[in-house]
Amino acid sequence: MSQRIDSIAKGLVLVSGLFLCQKVFCQNIEAEVKGPRPVEKAILMLEPAYGMAITYDDTLTVHPSLLEDLTDALRNPSAEPTDTESQQRHLFQKSRAITFSYQRRSSLPSLNGDPQEFEQETRAAIRSALSSVLKGYAASGGPETFSVTEDAGGFHVFPINFLSESGELKTMAPILDTKITIVPKQRSRMELLEEICQAVTAGTGINVGVGTVSPNLMRTATSISGTDQPVRSLLTRLMAELKPTGVVVEANGTKKVFILPEGTDGPFSWSLLYGPGWGYALNIDHVVLKAE
After folding, report:
1. pLDDT digits (tens, 9 = 90+) for 60-69
2. Distances in Å between the alpha carbon of 118 and those of 125, 258, 262?
3. Around Cβ 230, how many Cβ atoms within 10 Å?
4. Could you give the residue range(s) of every CATH 3.55.50 domain in the chain?
5. What is the pLDDT of residues 189-214, one digit of tens each?
6. Topology, domain 174-292
C-alpha cells in the first residue's frame, strides 16, 4: 500500500536545513533550480543522486499570471506568417526559482552494509529531500499543492489542485489516477502507451499523448492489461519490464550495439508534462546513478 507523505500547502516558509560537514563531504547539499517546472527539475537532480525512480505529473497551468507569451520571441522575423500562424500563440509556464536541500548518497550509513537497510535509508533521504523541494516551491509563491506517494517502484509526485483561469484554487484529481481498461492481448510497448494515452484522454477530456520515449525499448511486445485499473498502476508495471540492454551507435555506416557498463542498469521513470493550450505528454526516462 502506498505511503502518503504530508502535502505541502501554499504559504509554507522554507526552513534552512542543518548542514553537518565532514572533512571529505557535507552530508546535506543546498541546491537551487530555476525553470518553468522547478519541481520536476529538482526531481531530475534527485533521481541520479539516489538511483531511484521519482515520477512527476505536471499540474494544469491555465491562469494568465502563471504563463508568458513567447510568440514574438519565437517568430522568424524574415518569414511572413501564415493566417494560422498569425493567430496561434505560443504560451509557456513562467520560470520560477526554488531552493532545497538533500542528503548526499555517500553519507548514508549503510552504503556498504546491509542492502535492505541501505534502501530504507535511501527512501528516508528521498522523503526528506522531496519535502524540502515542495517547501521550497511553496516559499517561491507556487500556488499549487503537490502530494507524494511511495511504492515498491519508487516515489510519485503529483498535484492535487490547480489555479483556474478565474484565479480560484480548484481541486484536481491526479490524471494518472484515472481508471482505464486495457484488454488482454499481445501488443508492442509503444502500442500500449498509445492505448493508455487515448483511454486517459477519453476518460478525462484532457488531451494526453506519448512524448519522448526510446523507440528501441518500445518495440518489444508486452502482455500488460487490466480492467478498471489506475493508469499509474499500469505504468508502474511497464517500468518494471523495461531493462536497458545497450546503446545503438553507428560507426562507418555499420550499426553496433554496445552493452551498457555495469552500474547503469537503473530503473525507468516517467514524467507527465503539460503544455499550455495543448495538453499532456507522457515521457519515459532511464534513471542512471550519478557517480559522486
Report:
1. 999 999 988 7
2. 10, 31, 20
3. 15
4. 174-292
5. 999 999 999 999 999 999 999 999 98
6. Phage tail protein beta-alpha-beta fold (3.55.50)
